[in-house]
């Protein structure tokens, strides 16, 4: 099986947030549309292809986006709605393929290796794409190749609402003429560095001796060279929603002190919220657990819009605790669990938050990471 040529399909929902909004209001189709906060200090969470023609992109300050395209329609994001559609697409894929990886709320890898014996991988990947669009109304693009890297780039080239196959043996030739910025993991800084070296295309990058790339960037240089040559051995990691991050605290003595318990909940939520962001994950389900002095244990959970933002998580945790707690009984233990985890970062939630809010979260996490996880926390967690 190790010598078998793999067949990996990559699917990406086109302008996901924008197209969900267009399902809710079809009159928005074909217009410059921005999803995000409406204040000048907010950021663009997503934008339509019509808006991108004006130079607008995600994570751009909303003030600048409005200046570039004054006629754009701005809509506050509805992460709960987007999460619902993400789950619907996930269920369709789960029901139709043997193994898939959910790379983000709107992006999937499917391992179709060996299915040629039964169906024909290309035909099957096309049928799955049409099925998703038919059942959800959302446009989706996909690429098919021998590895995740090339299939992802193929999807990007097929957008919007298209499909592209890169056959075995043609991976390097397909990548060669593309701009170096189109390689996954090549950000603005790396692109700028490569262009200073005169490297504009992936072909030029692939022709640089690997030893030189290692001297320049260390291990990252080797990986960049491999990618430029169309080499990627990373597996499709099976998606399991039951994976979770959790913590619980058993008190030294049973208590009915609600302020004390709420302070513990704040501390616990911040702790695993930090872990969530360090792993670049979002949670779609929160569970709160209470064990009373008589060892009777109760839990309550709530499916939520995907997030990793403490201020949202804390609000939900407190709501669940209030619904669960019976004030007449002594409490022995409380716990918090985040499940339905998917890859993603905090910025995905920022429809009403400002660039300052993003920087605050990044700064706090950076300090906690460097000097100890719980160096900085909310005052309400210190009781």
UniProtKB/TrEMBL annotation:
Top-level EC class as recorded in UniProt: transferase
Needed cofactors: Mg(2+)
Gene3D superfamilies in UniProt: 3.30.70.270, 3.40.1170.60, 5' to 3' exonuclease, C-terminal subdomain, DNA polymerase, Y-family, little finger domain
Subcellular location: Cytoplasm
Keywords: Cytoplasm, DNA damage, DNA repair, DNA replication, DNA-binding, DNA-directed DNA polymerase, Magnesium, Metal-binding, Mutator protein, Nucleotidyltransferase, Transferase
Keyword Disulfide bond annotated: no
Occurrences of domain UmuC (ranges): 8-187
Positions of Mg(2+) binding: 12, 106
PANTHER family: DNA POLYMERASE KAPPA, DNA REPAIR POLYMERASE UMUC / TRANSFERASE FAMILY MEMBER
Function: Poorly processive, error-prone DNA polymerase involved in untargeted mutagenesis. Copies undamaged DNA at stalled replication forks, which arise in vivo from mismatched or misaligned primer ends. These misaligned primers can be extended by PolIV. Exhibits no 3'-5' exonuclease (proofreading) activity. May be involved in translesional synthesis, in conjunction with the beta clamp from PolIII.
Subunit description: Monomer.
Protein name: DNA polymerase IV
Gene name per UniProt: dinB
